[in-house]
Write the structure tokens for this entry.
Amino acid sequence: MRNNDLINAEDSRSDIERQIAHRNKKNKRFKGVVIGATIISTLPLLFILFYIFRQGISAINWHFLTNLPKPVGEAGGGVANALVGSILILLVSCIIAIPIGIVIGIYLSEESKSKLAYYCRLAVDVLQGIPSIVIGIIIYEWIVRPVGGFSAFSGSLALALMMLPSIVKSTEETLKLLPESLKEASLALGVPYYKTMMKIIVPTGLGGILTGVILSIARVIGETAPLLFTAFGSPFMTTDIFKPMSSLPLIIFNYATSPYEDWHQLAWGASMLLILMILILNIISKIVQRKWKVQF
Amino acid sequence: MESAILKVRNFNAFFGESHILKNINLDIDKNNVWAIMGPSGCGKTTFIRCINRMHELTPNATTSGSMQLNGEEVYEMNPVLLRRKVGMVFQRPNPFPTMSIYDNVIAGYILNGIKLSKQQKDEIVETSLKRAALWMEVRSTLHKKGTFLSGGQQQRLCIARALSMNPEMLLLDEATSALDPVSTSKIEELIHELKAEYTILMVTHNMQQAARVSDKTAFFYLGEIIEADNTKTIFTNPKHEKTQDYIRGHFG
């Protein structure tokens, strides 16, 4: 039996045409399968988003955003303190993680063959794989227990540890892609090495670095486990980072595990808020990528 | 030879174990254009990168012998100060992509933290761009990004950037090899004009170019200077057989 896909020299014209039609059909079928599989695997994601939005949209209003949580039994109540807490905790972790991450990234891209770089890269990879709850416990052991109390700052430390790997990676990858000629141009002008790095190399790669930073924020914004052991949560509005503080994931955890129906509603609202924030961060990262793209 | 701006004596350069430059001796006179010629891998680029110590960016690079710029030993100077006196233009145009044309020209001042008034800046930008024969083309778009220019314009921008620091010497590392013929001829004209104020060393693969623009030519082969003389002599009456073969296109 001859293979349908082969064209031989002695084939007649109609034979060849039939075989080509057969191939085209096969191509179409394959394309159909790929598109179908993509749609099927995207559907669960869309369902999750749809469900959260349907559940959460009724909870979200101005009152929800600007009020503190109410005790059990009282109607209403909001997540103002959790929203402020989330933003504050993230802000502090950015202040800790961004400079350290960028510096490590610069080192790895500059001295990529050194021994220290090898071990550093290994450490960063392992850090990326550490479960968030383990990071929470470590910070609890190292900071919370010795200091003698939960604090938003320790939560920020835990989140900063989680942000670090992706900031390091994105900085390293971005800077590695920059042409060597850029550095040479600056050095040949008599610009010292540190200024070349800080004023030419890092600004040129800023788009990529910022994208990594934003995506790392989006990654940790919903982390609950490390905050349970560190920031702990608080029913009050507080801006003192050395006191326990509430945050959106914590409030979701507390409300969703409670037995009260109206608290469940608040948890859905907070979930939707969180997802909106992640969506916005992702959109910002796309815009940064496009706008700050450097042309050579 | 009182006017020699650069004196090279028994100069050797190594990358790790491999001996790249062997016993180089050369006197570069002020306001001359020197062409450095030779087949690929003969050490031309290494030689000019040794002059502003850019070869030190390569790990394991070492040198021996003496190289003096205006009587000062190059390898005892601070590389940062040295590079301000010796400008360099690279094979591929490399303007700073985050900076405007204006900022690119005075990048050497901005990055080195030298404070200038607005008027001084304008002046430096204008004279440097005029010297690099780019002023007429970009004077209305000074605040656009330098990377929007064409390749030839970018290269002249890089020349302007190097000139803005008022270097004593200008090194061109195959500066026209990535450019089209029109841009190349513009830069060659430019080299002619710049000769009045600067000493220029250019590495080139293009023999016609060396013959057209240089006063003197050094022929490198396997890390040695085979012959260094007036360009005219090298091209019409080379003393060494290797030079003759190279110029006639027998190898290269």
